[in-house]
């Protein structure tokens, strides 16, 4: 097992290398660069800077070097855990990301936890009543939910319960109220929670569908296995057959799909952060792409890639832990 | 639960027939497929359902068809190719008997259509036939064009404008009908691109294994690490601003093949260790014959299921892109585009968010039901009677 984990961690290195190289070249070969965008003048209008300043800037951002050399320089610095400074405001990339991370993590984390809590019982109930009205009702509702685009749902929810002409229960935009700094600790926390309700609901309902579908299929598969027939044949009560024999085996694939949900959650957070004006990672990525802020884009890419790769790895390891029959030796 | 009916003999039916029977037995899947067909019909007939020009106009003793000269290439394509697909389905038995001849005829027809489209240019006629006097005129049910601005701005749903109008007075119902074209075409073609790339890369990796397999797997892993939307946003945001339909199709297709490649690779790994490909090889079949005639047909079920869900997610991606402002260029109607307009006026213009939301919902639900029905019919592990 240790050898296996070690080998898998080693395999992460070429993948990370590939991701960063690809992203770096994508930014370098795209039209426009940070020096031009900041320089103003030309198409973007604004105050044009002198050629001298622009030259200095190009030198500063390594834009004068060939792409591969510039990438090697970036790689050398990041291997020493220095992600560089943002091109936009010259603050360290690590700090910029660090400020945004908690919001996105709490958004994705609470959505993931909530959708597991709701989806697994739903899936199991549907599997146990296969083909009956309950199964069809759950399938239908979950599928309709899955098919509503998050941004459409977010818009309609804002319209219905936040601001707008109808119900005015929840705040419309942002992560906290303007006067948040004057609030006491509990009022502040409550304010944060109120602001998070709509984004979390939107992020939850979408992954609800896939998890409950997986649970249903997984439970159906378990119920069709020979050991379930054996358990029934030896006269166990149905409750024990389902919870002790079928459910335990059905849970294995359900636990591991959280890894597959990660990229979708991060992607969903991008849209929702944009709609709800939440200052999270997704918004930062948006702004950085716009400003061709290479160090920040690279920093976020590395972080997202590591999170995704590690969750894939964790899923594979969990697989072995919960099911002793599987072995990677 | 139900006893097999005596009318069909379950022992002599082919695999395809079995899947079709199981698919038909699922009412969600059946209705999903019907809705998809209706949506394609709407997309094909959109210019005749919503247009400011009359279909038939009789004035001064002359009969004219003002709608036809204004049709654009993509409208002709939908109008001609959707019935063509229906014809292929109806004539499938003839085609199976003489595949080569039919393929040649088909290629000839498609080449003829494309050449004719390349030679003709649509007439840009900003006038409308609504108020124009005529002895007889047959207007489309929604007498507005999708890019036509009327003086009625921000009008809620009424008999005049069924789904209301937007900030420049464009009729939302007309934009929705024409937007169906964008969504369906992008979903279908983007997924075809993904299918081509995914099946060939995954299939070759699963068949030849070794270094090629390791390389493909690493590449898939790299692609999967980017959240799909972020990757597309990066490509769209960084590329020169040529946001035309084919560019969007290519970007969505080339970023969403990894799931299919994984699936096909797994299937090929499993299948090629079974006895029948070996038997084929022992009879002298080459690699390409084993792959195309033996392995691919056996992996077709799961591929089809995955591709159906893929179409739904491609449509969703396209509308998300348009919503974020990285999608189709301004005048082209697209559902996501209407929604992104809705975002600006969300505090009062509910119809701008509601109707396109419903349109996307219906499309995605139908495709997903078709996919789910196919999955249940194809998967032998979910014991179905």
**Order of strands, widest sheet of chain B:** 2-1-3
How many strands in all of chain A? 0
From the alpha carbons, calculate the radius of gyration of chain A and give it in angstroms: 25 Å
Mean pLDDT of chain A: 81
Largest sheet of chain A: none
Number of helices of chain A: 13
Quick synopsis:
Chain A has 329 residues and is mainly α.
Q: What is the strand and helix layout of this fold?
A:
The complex is a heterodimer of chains A (329) and B (385).
Chain A: H1 2-28, H2 34-39, H3 51-60, H4 67-79, H5 93-128, H6 133-147, H7 150-161, H8 185-223, H9 226-233, H10 238-256, H11 258-275, H12 281-291, H13 294-322
Helix pairs in contact in A: 1-13, 5-6, 5-8, 5-11, 5-13, 6-8, 7-8, 7-11, 8-10, 8-11, 9-10, 10-13, 11-12, 11-13, 12-13
Chain B: H1 15-25, H2 27-49, E1 56-59, E2 62-64, H3 73-90, H4 92-97, H5 99-119, E3 136-138, H6 172-208, H7 210-225, H8 228-238, H9 245-255, H10 258-272, H11 275-282, H12 287-324, H13 335-344, H14 350-378
Antiparallel strand pairs in B: 1-2, 1-3
Helix pairs in contact in B: 1-14, 2-3, 2-6, 2-14, 3-5, 6-7, 6-9, 6-10, 6-12, 6-14, 7-10, 8-9, 10-12, 11-12, 12-13, 12-14, 13-14
């Amino acid at each position: 097992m240790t050898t296996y984990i070690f080998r898998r961690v080693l395999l992460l290195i070429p993948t990370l290398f590939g991701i960063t190289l690809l992203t770096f070249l994508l930014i370098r070969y795209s039209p426009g660069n940070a020096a031009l965008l900041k320089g103003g003048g030309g198409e973007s209008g604004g105050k044009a800077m002198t050629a001298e300043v622009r030259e200095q800037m190009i030198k500063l951002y390594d834009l004068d070097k060939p792409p591969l050399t510039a990438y090697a320089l970036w790689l050398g610095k990041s291997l020493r855990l220095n992600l560089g400074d943002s091109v936009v405001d010259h603050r360290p990339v690590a700090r910029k990301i660090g400020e945004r991370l908690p919001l996105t993590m709490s958004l994705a984390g609470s959505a993931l936890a909530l959708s597991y809590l709701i989806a697994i019982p739903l899936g199991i109930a549907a599997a146990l009543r296969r083909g009956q009205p309950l199964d069809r009702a759950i399938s239908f509702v979950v599928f309709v939910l899955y098919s509503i685009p998050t941004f459409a749902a977010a818009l309609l929810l804002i319209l219905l319960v936040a601001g707008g002409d109808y119900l005015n229960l929840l705040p419309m935009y942002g992560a906290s109220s303007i006067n948040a700094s004057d609030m006491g600790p509990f009022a502040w926390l409550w304010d944060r929670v109120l602001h998070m309700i709509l984004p979390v609901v939107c992020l939850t309902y979408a992954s609800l569908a896939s998890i409950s579908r997986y649970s249903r299929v997984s439970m159906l598969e378990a119920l069709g296995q020979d050991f379930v027939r054996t358990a029934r044949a030896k006269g166990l009560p149905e409750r024990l057959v389902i919870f002790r024999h079928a459910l335990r085996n059905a849970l294995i694939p359900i636990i591991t799909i959280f890894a597959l949900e990660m990229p979708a959650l991060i992607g969903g957070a991008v849209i929702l952060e944009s709609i709800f004006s939440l200052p999270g990672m997704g918004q930062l990525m948006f702004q950085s792409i716009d400003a061709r802020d290479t160090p920040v884009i690279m920093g976020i890419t590395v972080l997202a890639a590591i999170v995704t790769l590690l969750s894939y790895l964790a899923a594979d390891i969990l697989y072995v832990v919960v099911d002793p029959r599987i072995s990677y030796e | 639960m139900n006893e097999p009916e005596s009318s069909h003999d379950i022992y002599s039916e082919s695999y395809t027939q079995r899947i079709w029977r199981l698919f038909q037995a699922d009412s969600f899947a059946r209705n999903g497929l019907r809705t998809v067909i209706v949506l394609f019909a709407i997309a094909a007939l959109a210019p005749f359902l919503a247009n400011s020009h009359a279909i038939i106009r009789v004035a001064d003793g002359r009969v004219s068809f003002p709608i036809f000269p204004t049709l654009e290439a993509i409208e002709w394509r939908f109008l001609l190719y959707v019935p063509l697909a229906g014809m292929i389905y109806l004539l499938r038995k003839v085609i199976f008997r003489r595949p080569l001849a039919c393929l040649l005829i088909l290629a000839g027809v498609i080449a003829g259509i494309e050449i004719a489209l390349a030679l003709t240019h649509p007439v840009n006629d900003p006038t409308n036939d609504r108020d124009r006097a005529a002895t007889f005129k047959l207007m489309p049910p929604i007498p507005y064009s999708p890019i036509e601005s009327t003086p009625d701005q921000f009008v809620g749903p009424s008999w005049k404008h069924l789904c209301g109008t937007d900030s420049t007075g464009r009729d939302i119902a007309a934009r929705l009908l024409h937007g169906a074209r964008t969504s369906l075409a992008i979903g279908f073609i983007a997924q075809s691109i993904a299918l081509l790339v995914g099946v060939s890369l995954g299939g070759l990796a699963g068949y030849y294994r070794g270094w090629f397999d390791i390389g493909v797997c690493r590449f898939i892993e790299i692609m999967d690490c980017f959240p799909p939307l972020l990757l597309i946003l990066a490509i769209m945001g960084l590329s020169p601003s040529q946001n035309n339909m084919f560019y969007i199709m290519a970007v969505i297709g080339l970023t969403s093949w990894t799931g299919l490649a994984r699936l096909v690779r797994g299937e090929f790994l499993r299948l090629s260790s079974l006895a029948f490909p070996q038997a084929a090889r022992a009879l002298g079949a080459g690699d390409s014959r084993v792959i195309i005639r033996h392995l691919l047909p056996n992996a077709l079920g799961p591929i089809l299921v995955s591709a159906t869900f893929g179409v739904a997610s491609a449509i969703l991606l396209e509308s998300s892109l348009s919503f974020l402002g990285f999608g189709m260029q301004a005048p082209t109607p697209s559902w996501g585009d209407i929604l992104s307009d809705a975002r600006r006026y969300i505090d009062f213009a509910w119809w701008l968010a509601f109707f396109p939301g419903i349109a996307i919902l219906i499309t995605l639900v139908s495709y997903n039901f078709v996919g789910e029905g196919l999955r249940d019919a194809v998967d032998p592990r979910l014991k179905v009677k």
